[in-house]
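Hi team,

As requested, here is the filled-out complex form for the zinc ion run. I kept the field names the same as last time so the parser does not choke. Let me know if anything looks off before we queue the next batch.

— J.
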Amino acid sequence: MSEQLSLRAERLRAAGHKLTHARLSVLRVLEESGGHVTSAEVLERVSALDASIGRASVFRTLDLFTSLLIVRPTYIDSSVTPTYVLMPEGHHHHIICTNCNRVIEFEDCCLSEMTAELEARLGVKLTGHLVEFYGLCDRCRQ
Ligand SMILES: [Zn+2]
Ligand SMILES: [Zn+2]
Ligand SMILES: [Zn+2]
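And here is what came back:
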């Protein structure tokens, strides 16, 4: 866990961003969240770590991390407040049950071929993806 944290901290530094106390605190909260956390939970946990870190600085940090693909916002549970998901290696995959809203995580990724094909065909440079499949989970389909 701490190694992952320093990897992400390295990524921040490599992108030319200072490792401020606020940024490192938000990183730590994200790491300890197990992958999914709402902005309200981030705020609450960061201020429990250090009450001097302000709301605005937490939101700016989340925006910065979003642009660096450390996290991405998703709207699993609410259309109002995003849930931030960590993007290990730049990708994250879900299957969401449209009946019970269960979120199933999976690591398998066979999108590298599609990524290369899109880059060649559209002239873009792709840095990551967040995939959501929708359907019925094993319990709901019975
Ligand atoms: Zn279900
Ligand atoms: Zn997830
Ligand atoms: Zn993937």
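Two things worth flagging: Residues 2-86 form a domain with the Arc Repressor Mutant, subunit A fold (CATH 1.10.10.10). The first strand starts at residue 36 and ends at 38.

Thanks,
J.
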